[in-house]
Design a protein that fits this description.
mainly beta; 3 helices; 12 strands; about 10% helix; elongated
Length: about 160
C-alpha cells in the first residue's frame, strides 16, 4: 500500500468547456465512465461540484455540474482535477488494487536494494505495465505480473532480468 491511504483520489481532469451552457470535457483516469458515474460529489481544486449529467465523448466524457452555468465558468475549470475522498471508493476484491496505491511506491531487487519507483501504470490491452524511474534516472517498463514483479510482505520486488 502507498504511504498515504487518506489522500483524495483523482478520477478525472477537466479538459475544457464544451458548448456554451456550462458543460465540460473530461479526461477520465478512472477505470471507465461507469466508475465515474458511481460518484456525484467531487472536489475541484477545493470547490465542491455536484455531477448532474455525464455522457461519453470521443476522447473521454462530457459532464455537467450543478454549480457551473456558462462557458466562462466551465473554461475556468480547465486543468482542474476532480477528486473524491478515498473512503468513497468501493472495496477491493482479492488481487485487485488501485493505481494510486502503486504509483510512487519504491521497487526493490530480490536483495532488498531500492531500484527505483513506480512512475505510472499503463495498459495496452494485455495487462498492466509498470513504468519505473530507476535510481540512475532512466525509465523502463515491466509487466505487473510474475515473474517480473512480485509483492512480498508489502514490498514491490522486481526481477532484475526484466530491467535490461
Amino acid at each position: 500500500m502507498s504511504a498515504d491511504q487518506t489522500a483524495d483520489i483523482t478520477l478525472a481532469a477537466v479538459a475544457g468547456a464544451h458548448g456554451i451552457g456550462g458543460a465540460v470535457r473530461l479526461k477520465i483516469f478512472a477505470q471507465g465512465l461507469e466508475s465515474l458515474q458511481a460518484h456525484r460529489n467531487f472536489s475541484a481544486g477545493g470547490k465542491a461540484l455536484t455531477l448532474t449529467e455525464l455522457r461519453p465523448d470521443k476522447i473521454g466524457a462530457v459532464a455537467r455540474f450543478a454549480e457551473i452555468h456558462d462557458r466562462n465558468q466551465a473554461e475556468a475549470l480547465r486543468g482542474t482535477l476532480l477528486t473524491i475522498p478515498r473512503e468513497a471508493l468501493p472495496p477491493l476484491e482479492d488481487g485487485e488494487y488501485y493505481h494510486a496505491d502503486i504509483i510512487g511506491r519504491p521497487v526493490e531487487g530480490p536483495d532488498g536494494a531500492v531500484l527505483g519507483t513506480v512512475l505510472k501504470i499503463e495498459n495496452y490491452g494485455a495487462g498492466d505495465i509498470l513504468e519505473l524511474t530507476l535510481a540512475d534516472g532512466r525509465t523502463t517498463m515491466v509487466p505487473f505480473r510474475a515473474p517480473a514483479v512480485s509483492e512480498t510482505e508489502g514490498r514491490l520486488v522486481v526481477d532484475p532480468l526484466w530491467l535490461a
